[in-house]
TrEMBL record:
Stored InterPro entries: Allantoinase, Amidohydro-rel, DHOase/Allantoinase_Hydrolase, Metal-dep_hydrolase_composite, Metal_Hydrolase
A GO BP entry: purine nucleobase catabolic process
Entry coiled-coil feature ranges: none
Taxonomic lineage from the root: Bacteria, Pseudomonadati, Acidobacteriota, Terriglobia, Terriglobales
Domain Amidohydrolase-related, first and last residues per copy: 51-440
A GO molecular function held by the record: cobalt ion binding
EC number: 3.5.2.5
One Gene Ontology term, aspect cellular component: cytoplasm
Name under which the protein is recorded: allantoinase
Family: Belongs to the metallo-dependent hydrolases superfamily. Allantoinase family.
PANTHER family: ALLANTOINASE
Broad class of enzyme this protein falls into: hydrolase
Length: 467
């Protein structure tokens, strides 16, 4: 059925407009003044609520199959819908089996089937020794590949060294797909940890954890990757950049015309090391949250275009893995070296970011570029999602920029309702989310939120032709 959503603040790539978005089936048919609508088209008037394109998150750890007790497709996509995300791309590790061959990809597809409230795609993995699997994964529809230059925390997804990268890169170039890299190298980290342990450092202190993941680990990795990019001209994407010290070399690479893109995350843009209490292991992630001055430099890099996009790196785990309380005799709570590194934020990332954007006089159009259009381009989905334009999927978010709320467990919606942001007051409330024209989430202030649609999310599997 043809229907329309009217808002005085429709965020299009060109401008903020007072307009009606006409929806026909799954897609946007037109964007026009409400006065020009045919009289028989039903219209939902959103008033002053901003109408945004559905957000696209290209860095989500769903963990199913195999570790569904950490997170799963049903809970992750429920949290995504509540947060305004209509497309998410799942990382190939933390699940069992890891998505490093076509058989594992098909197993993950079977696990996702019929569970997802929003649309999704599935990255493939580039690990030590699986070069022969990369082209088959591309032909099977993955939008790109993820790799680690350092131990990722799970044994089955191995780090890839430079020699194996150089075996894989010609094959990745043939696919035309991006390689997403966790850019830290071990030598600087190993040296820092050895020094801290020798000096009797207290691992309950955040300062100790921060010192254990020095900027140099990122800088050395990114320098190596840029050299490889100059040689092989592959599409390089740096995930979760945390250190602003890498920005000058990335800016030079962009001016050279290297095919490099960069993401950072809400926790690096919202938090600062100086504000993290000792023992607050919910803030542990890798690379770590750095200083307030570093945070401001990341925001400036987004303004200038050195950083392209924001992705959540939604990485949940059971509470016991954060060492919030002792589960066995002899365990210590609050040790950063023993806690799992990851922050879950799918359901509240947009308010986290809008809170910070308002403080810096940044616009909704800028924010939707970083959280919708640019991630859609990275994943090869920009012909279908990422902006409010005729012909694209009617993935839309009604966002109340003037409202505030306090983070409480019932607003999180992912599997384990723990968060470093608990109790914070944030600016901006997702009121409704539509997936391909159908409402999949509605926030009710007077009662529990609603998820009125069935699990109609579907996979985006890319069509790849090897060059």
């Amino acid at each position: 059925m043809v229907h329309a959503l009217r808002s005085r603040r429709v965020i299009t790539p060109q401008s903020l407009r007072d307009a009606a978005v006409v929806i026909d089936g799954d897609c946007i048919a037109a964007i026009k003044p409400a006065s020009e609508l045919a009289s028989d088209i039903p219209v939902e008037d959103l008033g002053d609520l901003a109408l945004l394109p559905g957000l696209v998150d290209t860095h989500v750890h769903i963990n199913e199959p195999g570790r569904t007790e950490w997170e799963g497709f049903a809970t992750a996509t429920r949290a995504a819908a509540a947060g305004g995300f209509t497309t998410i791309v799942d990382m190939p590790l933390n699940c069992l089996p890891e998505t490093t061959d076509v058989g594992a990809l098909e197993t993950k597809r079977e696990a996702a089937h019929g569970q997802c409230l929003v649309d999704y795609a599935l990255w493939g993995g580039a690990v030590d020794g699986n070069q022969h699997e990369l082209e088959p994964l591309a032909l099977a529809g993955v939008p790109g590949f993820k790799s680690f230059l350092i131990y990722p925390g799970c044994d089955g997804f191995t780090a890839i060294d430079r020699a194996n990268l150089e075996l894989a890169l010609p094959l990745i170039v043939r696919t035309g797909l991006p390689l997403l890299v966790h850019a830290e190298l071990e030598p600087s980290i190993n040296a820092a940890v050895a020094h801290l342990n020798a000096s009797g450092a207290d691992w309950h202190r955040y300062a100790t954890y921060l010192a254990s993941r020095p900027d140099e680990a990122e800088l050395e990795a990114i320098e190596m990757l840029l050299k490889l990019c100059r040689t092989y001209r592959f599409r390089l994407h740096i995930v979760h950049l945390s250190t602003a010290k890498a920005l000058p070399m990335l800016a030079v690479a962009r001016r050279e015309g290297l095919p490099v893109t960069v993401e950072t995350c809400p926790h690096y843009l919202h938090c600062a090391a100086e504000e993290i209490a000792d023992g607050a292991t919910l803030f542990k992630c890798a690379p770590p949250i750095r200083s307030a001055a570093n945070r401001e430099a990341l925001w400036q890099a987004l303004r200038e275009g050195t950083i392209d996009l924001i992705a959540t790196d939604h990485s949940p785990c059971p509470p016991a893995m954060k060492r919030l309380e002792a589960t066995q005799l002899g365990e210590e709570t609050g040790r950063f070296d023993e806690a799992w590194g990851g922050i879950a934020s799918l359901s509240i990332a947009l308010p986290l970011l809008w809170t910070q954007c308002e403080r810096r006089s940044l616009s909704l159009r800028q924010l939707t570029e970083w959280t919708s259009a640019a991630p859609a381009r990275l994943a090869g989905l920009s012909t279908e999602v990422g902006s409010i334009e005729p012909g694209k999927h009617a993935n839309l978010v009604a966002f109340d920029t003037a409202a505030s709320f306090t983070v409480v467990p019932e607003l999180l919606h992912y599997r384990h309702a723990i968060s470093p942001y608990m109790g914070e007051t944030l600016r901006g409330v997702v009121r409704s989310t539509w997936l391909r024209g159908e409402r999949v989430f509605q926030r009710n202030d007077s009662g529990p939120s609603e998820f009125p649609a069935t699990a109609r999310g579907r996979e985006y599997a890319l069509s790849c032709s090897l060059t």
